[in-house]
Every structure is written in structure tokens, then in C-alpha cells.
UniProtKB/TrEMBL annotation:
<dbReference type="InterPro" id="IPR003708">
    <property type="entry name" value="SecB"/>
</dbReference>
<dbReference type="InterPro" id="IPR035958">
    <property type="entry name" value="SecB-like_sf"/>
</dbReference>
<dbReference type="Pfam" id="PF02556">
    <property type="entry name" value="SecB"/>
</dbReference>
<dbReference type="GO" id="GO:0051262">
    <property type="term" value="P:protein tetramerization"/>
</dbReference>
<keyword id="KW-0143">Chaperone</keyword>
<protein>
    <recommendedName>
        <fullName>Protein-export protein SecB</fullName>
    </recommendedName>
</protein>
<dbReference type="GO" id="GO:0005737">
    <property type="term" value="C:cytoplasm"/>
</dbReference>
<dbReference type="GO" id="GO:0051082">
    <property type="term" value="F:unfolded protein binding"/>
</dbReference>
<keyword id="KW-0963">Cytoplasm</keyword>
<dbReference type="GO" id="GO:0015031">
    <property type="term" value="P:protein transport"/>
</dbReference>
<keyword id="KW-0811">Translocation</keyword>
<keyword id="KW-0813">Transport</keyword>
<dbReference type="GO" id="GO:0006457">
    <property type="term" value="P:protein folding"/>
</dbReference>
<comment type="subunit">
    <text>Homotetramer, a dimer of dimers. One homotetramer interacts with 1 SecA dimer.</text>
</comment>
<comment type="similarity">
    <text>Belongs to the SecB family.</text>
</comment>
<comment type="function">
    <text>One of the proteins required for the normal export of preproteins out of the cell cytoplasm. It is a molecular chaperone that binds to a subset of precursor proteins, maintaining them in a translocation-competent state. It also specifically binds to its receptor SecA.</text>
</comment>
<keyword id="KW-0653">Protein transport</keyword>
Length: 165
């Protein structure tokens, strides 16, 4: 009987597990090679990132971290790398804001080192110097996105109220 109680207790415990990490999409462009190799290498590097998640079963979510890195020498594009680093995560017993935080910040934090390594490898294969992206604070990015969403919703609610009066 104690085993049954313990098993029932385990069902209510929150569970989180990484099930798989993979590259979903990868693109590398070096539109001005080989001429760009003759210039002094002092690039301006721009990083754009985005996250998305999809529920694939009751307790499984796919989280996709999309990164685009553009390196320019002045107005000349040296290279563009786009990677979608994805993972399948088991999430059970976590709901509401905690689930949003898990999928929007914690999972991308797990995926980022893999995406960074993929980008560095492909940049190297393109005959460019190594590119080690600085760490990203996904908790702060998630908090900003949440705040922006709340402000937009508050603005729309206020706009809707003013139109009804």
C-alpha cells in the first residue's frame, strides 16, 4: 500500500526532462566571398534571436531557438548564418506562468550553447575566424516580452473602453 501511495505522490510531482536536441534548420551565406577575404577583418556583428514553442503531446513541447547572425565589413555583408536549434522537452505538472517561464526562458537557455557551437562551426567552415557569441539572459528577455505584452493588452483594453463610452 505504501508503494501505491508513493506512486500516486510521484504523479503529482512536477517533472521536466530534455528528450532530444537537434538542428531544425541551418543556413550559411557568404555572398561577397572571395573578395571579402581580402579586406581587414573588423566586422560589425548583429545577432537577432527569437523563441517559439509548440505543444506536440500532452506533456511534450518542442522549443525552437532561432538565431540569425550577420557579419558586415562596412556596408559589405561578409556572412549570414541562420540556425533553428530545437529541443523536445517533457513537462508535466507545471502550468500557467511557470510553464510560460519554462518554455520561454529556461528551455532556450539550455538550447543556446548548442546553437552557439553550431554557428561557430559553420562560420569556421566558411573560412572565417571563430565566432563565440556572448551568453544571453533569456530570463530578462522573457520578462521584457511579458511586460510588453501586458502593456499592449492594457492599451487595447483602455482603447476598447474609450470607444464604448
Amino acid at each position: 500500500m505504501a508503494d501505491n501511495q508513493q506512486a500516486a505522490g510521484n504523479q503529482t510531482q512536477p517533472q521536466f526532462a530534455l528528450q532530444r536536441i537537434y538542428v531544425k534548420d541551418l543556413s550559411f551565406e557568404s555572398p561577397n566571398a572571395p573578395l571579402v577575404f581580402q579586406e581587414q577583418w573588423k566586422p560589425q556583428v548583429n545577432l537577432d534571436l527569437n523563441t517559439a514553442h509548440t505543444k506536440i503531446s500532452d506533456n511534450q513541447y518542442e522549443v525552437v531557438l532561432s538565431l540569425t547572425v550577420t557579419a558586415k565589413l562596412g556596408d559589405t555583408v561578409a556572412y549570414i548564418v541562420e540556425v533553428q536549434q530545437a529541443g523536445v522537452f517533457l513537462v508535466h505538472g507545471i502550468e500557467g506562468p511557470q510553464l510560460g517561464q519554462m518554455l520561454g526562458a529556461y528551455c532556450p537557455t539550455i538550447l543556446f550553447p548548442y546553437a552557439r557551437e553550431t554557428i561557430d562551426n559553420v562560420v569556421n567552415k566558411g573560412s572565417y575566424p571563430a565566432l563565440m557569441l556572448a551568453p544571453v539572459n533569456f530570463d530578462a528577455i522573457y520578462a521584457q516580452a511579458l511586460k510588453r505584452k501586458q502593456q499592449e493588452e492594457a492599451g487595447e483594453a483602455a482603447k476598447g473602453e474609450s470607444q464604448t463610452h
